[in-house]
Amino acid sequence: MMQKFRSVLFAPGNKSELLKKLPKIQPDAAIVDLEDAVPDEEKNKARKNFQEFIDSEETKKLEAFPRVNPISSSHFKLDIQALPPEVDCVVIPKINNLEELEEAEKILSQNSIERKIIVGIETVLGVASATEILSNTSVIAAYFGAEDYVLDLGGFRTTGNDEVFLARSQMGMAGRLSGVPVIDQIVTDFSDDERFTEEAYQARALGFSGKLCIHPSQVPLANQSFSYSQAEVNRAKELLAVYDQALSQGSASAVYDGKMIDEALAKQARRILGS
Questions:
Q1: Distance from chain centroid for Cα 39
Q2: What is the mean pLDDT of the chain?
Q3: The pTM is what?
Q4: Number of domains in the chain
Q5: Nearest partner of 93 among 112, 135, 121, judged by Cα
Q6: Fewest CB atoms less than 10 Å from the CB: which of 77, 96, 99, 264?
Q7: Cα-based distances in Å from 147 to 183, 221, 255
Q8: Nearest of 166, 117, 176 to residue 146 by alpha carbon
């Protein structure tokens, strides 16, 4: 069964008190950040904290992965060398193309057993190369980093998300073509539940399987947003009953709730009921 990534919660690796809270929060996956959330002088501390965290008994009940620094960073090899052998998946940010991913794979293999990779797509080139990157067999998931993408684009962030609509759409398509789950951008204002839920709904409509979270309060919102509600399940059952009856009467279309339904909508309903 494919790993669920409805809620993916970040925690800075240099804050051990925050890492200890992760097993109780129970996101679908936790990412211990060794990159952006950790200042250079705290990198070593973050690596040691992660090692202690991953060895703790509580962590065994949690899917937890380290986010190392980008391959272009002087910290990348040090991060890889510090990874405990039991870590079987690494989050690598800001992958721009397949060549960078293959270079990262080479360094991983030189320092440890083979590991799976969650890639960060956070640049214009990364988005343009997303399908090729995600199709690599080592990649089990990808996330879209809107803040770094817009910085690279030379644009600016808006609450309407117009500036990332194309990139998010391309990420959804890349995930579908490569068969790996894609995880949507963060919402920096973690007090704005309404915006988070609205963005999650947009992301789900675009084919994303989950959302990055930067605060524990966002985890249940993400889990709920990327799970089918009882109302959706009931509607799917009703739609299929109407459609199946139409098929039995020799028609490949029917009217349900005042709208025309056909095989495409029936397939969507079956997907909901089969999940």
A1: 24
A2: 95
A3: 0.89
A4: 2
A5: 121
A6: 264
A7: 14, 21, 44
A8: 166
Domain CATH for 133? 3.20.20.60
Asked if residue 95 lies in contact with residue 121, where contact means CB atoms within 8 angstroms, the answer is: yes
Tell whether 156 is covered by a domain. Answer: yes
pLDDT for 206 equals: 97
What is the CA angle 41-44-49, rounded to 5? 120
- Specify if 179 maps to a domain: yes
d(CA 70, CA 186): 19
> Residues 49, 13: contact at Cβ < 8 Å?
yes
Task: Tell me which residue has tokens 């060398």.
Answer: 81
SS3 30: strand
Query: What count of other Cβ atoms lies within 10 Å of the Cβ of residue 41?
Result: 8
Do 45 and 143 have their domain in common? Answer: yes
Residue range(s) defining the domain that contains residue 98: 7-225
Q: Which of 223, 191, 211 is nearest to 26 (CA)?
A: 223
Burial class (CB in 10 A: 0-12, 13-18, 19+), 209: buried
For 189, the token pair is: 């204002």
**Which pLDDT value is given to residue 111?**
85
Q: Is the pLDDT of residue 144 over 90?
A: yes
Cα dist from 275 to 144, 190, 236, whole Å: 24, 29, 12
